[in-house]
Backbone:
């Protein structure tokens, strides 16, 4: 199974200047819990934005650069090859960014979608989700608190059969 995991603002923004705009520790906890022990597949820009391989996960980086090296990571040159690398995993995660999400959308079975109830200025967007193709199978709302300055909802979307 291949899933996307993403945090999206109300206006579909997901990033700016190759970094995340918001800081929501509760959502980061969800990301860590969901992806730990699994393959995570990302574009080269998202990898460089993270700055290091994420621990307890097999990091797969997609780049066109045949000489690209990243210690502790698997480097591939297409999404198809990334998915092949992860074929033994019960659930592999596409973790961004915009370009990779766009390519992966038609291929994934599930989307873990954190919807932040706020608009942000940015330069990277998540593709439009056609809700005719997806059903919401889980939904959890999180209010603002001391550490999380914006309210958000974590949804699980499963592709309709
Ligand atoms: N909110 C969220 O949940 C979330 C999650 C992840 C990322 N982000 C944000 O998204 C932004 C980064 O996204 P992005 O769209 O700019 O970049 P990206 O998708 O992370 O990476 C793009 C790179 O992937 C490689 N690539 C793309 N298509 C390819 C193909 N067909 N074959 C081989 N390699 C290919 C290229 O690497 P080379 O240039 O090396 O060839 C390309 O520059 C950042 O702001 C980040 O913070 C947000």
Residues:
């Amino acid at each position: 199974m291949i899933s996307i995991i993403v945090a999206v603002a109300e206006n579909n923004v997901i990033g700016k200047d190759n970094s995340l705009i918001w800081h929501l520790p509760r959502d980061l906890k969800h990301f860590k819990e969901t992806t730990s022990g699994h393959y995570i597949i990302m574009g080269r820009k998202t990898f460089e934005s993270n700055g290091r391989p994420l621990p307890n996960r097999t990091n797969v980086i997609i780049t066109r650069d045949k000489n690209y090296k990243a210690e502790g990571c698997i480097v591939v040159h297409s999404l198809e090859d990334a998915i092949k690398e992860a074929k033994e995993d019960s659930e592999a995660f596409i973790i961004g960014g915009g370009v990779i999400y766009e390519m992966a959308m038609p291929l994934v079975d599930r989307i873990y979608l954190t919807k932040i109830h706020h608009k942000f200025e940015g330069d990277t967007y998540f593709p439009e989700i056609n809700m005719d193709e997806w059903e919401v199978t889980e939904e959890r709302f999180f209010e603002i608190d001391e550490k999380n300055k914006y309210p958000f909802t974590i949804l699980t979307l499963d592709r309709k059969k």
In short: The longest strand covers residues 134-142. The beta strands are 2-9, 13-15, 39-43, 58-62, 74-76, 92-94, 110-116, 124-125, 134-142, 152-159. Residues 6-7, 14-16, 18-20, 42-46, 49, 62-65, 77-78, 95-100, 124 surround NAP (CB under 6 Å).
